[in-house]
Amino acid sequence: MTTVATIGYQAATIGSFLDALREAEVGVLADIRAVASSRRPGFSKSRLAANLAEAGIEYVHLRGLGTPAEGRAAARAGRHAKMREVFQAHLATAGAQAELQALAELVRGGRRVCLLCFEADPAHCHRSLVAAALGALMPIRVVHLMPVDSR
Prior knowledge:
There is one protein chain. The protein is α/β, with parallel strands linked by helices. It has one domain (2-147): Cobalt-precorrin-4 Transmethylase, domain 1. Helix content is 44%, strand content 17%. It is built from 6 helices and 5 strands; from the N terminus they run βαβαβαααβαβ. It has helices at 14-23, 45-54, 69-76, 80-91, 94-108, 126-137; strands at residues 2-8, 28-31, 58-61, 113-117, 140-145. A 5-stranded parallel beta sheet has the order 3-2-4-1-5, sandwiched between helices. Strand 2, helix 2 (45-54) and strand 3 (58-61) form a beta-alpha-beta unit.
């Protein structure tokens, strides 16, 4: 069974984040943020891609698997059930389904894939919903990585 990892960078430094990915032998980081920018140093799209490249990890942005604005607002307000509802509706769209298929192809490619989003707790993040949807397409084992400074 193929292992797919997830990771959130909310409380992480770029160093601990990269260490967690290397330790888990991640080959491809699939960024599933709708907006790949961040106030946290090293986590905006271009800087993150460069940091990953230096670590020998491929970066792929699957924007279509990101949470719509309404869902992000609900998550920031701690309304996790609403975020899940908004995201599940989004996940049913043709665009999100196409991105889910692209993710499945990455996973079939043989290198360990890790899903990235901001939220530290996978139970409160849409990346767990993406992993579950991926698991409905193919047999996978999901592991949630926690950078040392996020624990």
